[in-house]
Every structure is written in C-alpha cells, then in structure tokens.
Amino acid sequence: MSMRPGGAGETLVRDRHLTGLVLLPAVVAGLVLVGLVLASRLFPAAAIFQVSRAVPFEEALRTDEEETVFEAIRAGTDPNLAIEVRDAALTGGRTIRALPVTLAVATGSEHALQVLLGHGAVVDAARAAWLQCLAARAGWPAIVPVLTPFGGAVDLSGCGAVAGAPLLDGQGPD
Amino acid sequence: MAVLLLTAPVWGLLLLSIWRSPFPISEAVALFEDAASQPVSHFIVPDTPYYRPLYHLLLMAIWKGTPTLDLKLALVKLTHILPVFVLVVAFVRHLRPRSALDAALAVAAVAVLLGSPGLRDNLELPLTYTAVGMPAAVLVWRLLESPRRRWTSAAIIALTVLAVGFKEQGLVIVPIVILAAWMDAPGATRRLAAVMFVLTIGYLAVRLAFRSAWPLFEQSLGFGVAVIEPTEAVHRFGAFPLPMYAYNALATMANVVAAEPSGGTFVITRDLLAGRPLPWELVHVISSLGLSGLIAWWGRCELRAVRRDGWTPERRAVVLLVLAVAACGALSFNYSRDRLGGMAVPFYAGTGFLAMRWAATCVIAAGWRVWRGGALALFVLASGWELRAVGTLEWVRLTSERSSREWLMDLPKRRREFAHREVYLGIMESMVEQGTRPGAPHMLRIPSKLQRTFLQRP
What we know:
The complex is a heterodimer of chains A (174) and B (458). Chain A is mainly alpha-helical. Chain A has helices at 8-42, 57-62, 66-74, 88-91, 100-106, 110-118, 125-138, 144-151; strands spanning 83-86, 95-98. The longest helix of chain A has 35 residues, at 8-42. The radius of gyration of chain A is 28 Å and the shape is elongated. With 458 residues, chain B is mainly alpha-helical. In chain B, α8 runs parallel beside α10, α10 packs antiparallel against α11 and α10 (173-182) runs antiparallel to α17 (313-331). The longest helix of chain B has 42 residues, at 368-409.
C-alpha cells in the first residue's frame, strides 16, 4: 500500500507507532513481573528470591542475620540450648559451650539478640547482669539497654576485661 | 478490559502482596485493641483530632463479629484490598478509552495512579483511611460526568459520607461537587450542591464545637531539609503558626504535582543541589514535572476556550484537579505527609490521561519531525511512571519486610512497654504467628544500584 506523505495513511502509521511506544513500558514491566513470579516458582532457591542466607545458626548469630536466626528457631533450634563456639578472638582458639544469647552479645549482634529474647530465650536477672557486663567488655554499649529490662541497670565500671584473657572463657552462668 | 489486563501484573501483584503481608505491630495491634475494648461512643463522639468513625466501627464489627483471628485479619485485609481494586476498575471505566491509542494512554494513566506517592503512602495495613476515600472520589467524579438519574444525588452524598467517615480528607469531595454543579456537570445540580454545603457546614460546626484542647502541631513537621518535632514546632512557630500551616499545605500540594517535598522535606532537592541525586529521585521529578507541565499547558488551552464554547468534561477536569490539590493542601495544614495528597491522585492521573491524549493527537497530526520528539517525550513519561508503579509494588514488599522484622525483634520491648494493657498483649501474642509466617512478601534481592532506579527508600 503506497502512502501519500502527510496523508491519512501516514497519520494512521504514526498513531499505531505511538500506541506501541506508549504501551511498551507497561508491556515490558508486565513481562518482567510475571517472569519473576514464574521464576520464583521454578527456581525458589535462587539468591534473588531469598530473604535469608542458608548459614548455620552459630554463623547467623555472629553475623547478626535476624531472619536466619528466627528460621532456625522456627525449625526447632532451642534458643536456650548451649552451642559449641570456637574462635581465635572470642575463645582464644578453645572450643567452649555458650548460650546463643551469650554469643550474640559477645559479637554485638543486637538484632539476633532481640530475636532470641522475643522468641523463647530465657534470661533471668543474674544472667542479664552478666551479659550486660559482657557487652561492656566486648565494646558493644548499644547492647546494654536491650538487656537492662531483664536484670536492671548494672554498674559497668567493674566489668573490666582481664588483660590477655579471651572474652569467652567457658566461665560464668553458661 | 484490555487496559485492566495490561496493567494487571502491577496492580494484581500489588493486591496479592498486601494480602500476603503481615500486619505490623505498631498501630495495628493498638487499633485492634480499641476495636476489642472500647465502647461505640468512643468512636462516635468527635472530640479527637483524628475522627474516623466509620473506619473504627467497621474494625469493631469485624473484630467482635467474627469467631477466629484468621478470619478477622483476612476481613481487615479485604477492607484494604477491595477499595484499591475498586479504585483501579472505576478509574479505568471513568477514562472510557475508545481507541487503541486511548487504551495505551489509559495504561500509562493507571501507572500514574499506582506510582503516585499519595496512593503508595495509603497502602499500609491496616490504615484503610484514604484508600476508601480515593475510589469514592473517582465514583463521584464519574457520577458527576454521567447523565443524572434519580439516585445520583443520593449516591454522591452517600459516597461523600463514606469517604469522610473513613478520614476527613474525604471532605475534598465537597468543593468538587459544588464546583461541578456550577460548571454544569450533568450529574450535579444546584440543589445537591446546596445540600452538600449545608451538611458540611453542620459537620464542621459539630467538629469545632468539640475542639477543646487540640495541640497546635499534631505530628512531626518536615521543614526545609529537616524534621521538627511538635514541641520544637510549638516553640518556634506557636506564637504565629499560620506561615507553618501554609508551608504544610503547599508542601502537600507540591508533592502531588512535583513529587517533592515528601512529608514537607526537600530530600530530592537537597541531593540534586549536592550533585548526588539517586536514580529514583530523577525518575520521580522528571515524570512528575513532565506530566504536570503537560497538564498545565493543555489545561490553559482548555480553560481559555470556556468563555467561547462553555464547559466540557475536559475543562471541568482541569478545574477539579486544581480544586482537589488545593483542598488536599488545606486539609493537611497541620502537617504534611504524602498520603494526605491521596484524594487528589485520581484527579491528577485522570487529567494526566486527558493531557497525554491531547499531546498524542497533536504529535500524530503534526508530521514526522514533530512526531519523533513528541513520541519520545511521551515514551519517557510513560516509562518513568511505569517505573514508579513498580516502585509502589516494591514499597509494599519493603513494608511487609519491615513488619516481619518488627515481629522478630520488637516483642521483648513491646511486652515491657504494654505490660499493663492486658488486651493489647493478648492480641499481640495471638498475632505473632501471622507476623512470623514464612512466605511473607519481600523485596527482590537485586543489586542496590538497580533497585534505586525505582524504589524510594527513606
């Protein structure tokens, strides 16, 4: 079909092309969104769809990954059961047993600590006071107020670390 | 129907995401506590700055009238999802696209509706306030522009009462109806306008009669690039608050048409002046200013023709948009928030559709040289708003993530803080399961550079 320049045929072509151009962003967005929904069904383990990293409970406590900590508790991990910890800085390379709250406090994992306290971890007044001291010694002052309601305010001036001693030595309430 | 299908991936996933989102602890639990324990009179007597009797009575009816927690929460979610669905459907029907080009532009207009901060900020569960007012405004607009039937006036009054009963921002509808009657809208009569005026005066008289000790400033205020807390605002502006009230009103109005400031704070301007604007900031400003500029250009031409040719739906739309934006501003004099511009959003998107249709018709008729520039401009405009609509979807997912995180981490703090409120604690503990359920919507884990092109993060 030949078209006369400036005639009705050309107007129709411009109308159609403009319609396509204006529609294009919505079509692309729609395809991408629907594609992502399908991909999330086909490849649910892909990193793009993950809320939390699949890492061990202990690592999640150390790296303050609250979702992973909660997933572990939901899956059956007891937040009041001591876990084995071995770390050059924290334990001087020794393997010791420590409660999850202790590890969270020692590593400054405030979010993970809040998850533990909100979902089953039992902290009595004596342990809360000891944990506040631990937080002060470890250099995590922001953690102290999280624990204050469980054991009252503690005089932190007497919490000084022993020179050369690891932060977690297997002693204390754990 | 084609427009609804083409836009379904965004609004469908948006509604699905709201449906699967957990309720947050903050606000939700306290609202449910009120619904469970307060008498009806508590919500009816207008002695509070925030008067939303129909919202609270609906919440109370759901809370007390359903047997299980799951059903209560599902119904509360539906009261949020259904209005948004009605908003989209009613909006598309109101546009009445008659050609393929019309349909394409209507798709872009739906993106404007979904991508506007005034809508996005009203999608937070369970705050179904303006989410009800917005579809009511669209339905009223549609009734005003449709041939009058016997029930038209009653329906307009009922929709206005519904909108106002959920949030007083619904009062935006009143001047719209009155001015529509003056502009000879087919669905409006002078009698309806008079009835609306009298009812509103009566309502305002009752509200003001109960105004005893409302604070000068209810909430924190955005001012320049800073946020001022109410006590500081009283100290700085308490002696003569009118300039601050005017600032708040103008901030809300500017947010509707320019995406800036947000909550009274000029964040985008600050970043632009510092030479480090984020991609989403550029997308917001360019798309908003582009569409607002087009509306202003087209609206000026339309209004010039009124004296010669009289009123048309298009000319009335321009006036109604100006009125809706101004009314939203006036009603947000105390503090500015994006959500307070919500009632103007359907008028902005609808008038945007008309302006884009005019521009498209012009560039098609003008020849290839003009077409290239005009088509590119419309493509950029449609792309910007589509990105913002997707941004709204991601915003809902981000809100869902935040709510989930509240349930993971805030429980010890809340248990202490509300230890003396038995009903609150009971409701909160019963909702832990819904707050920590697996599969709640979350944002895509994509590189933050890409995410920042469409997602506004405070």
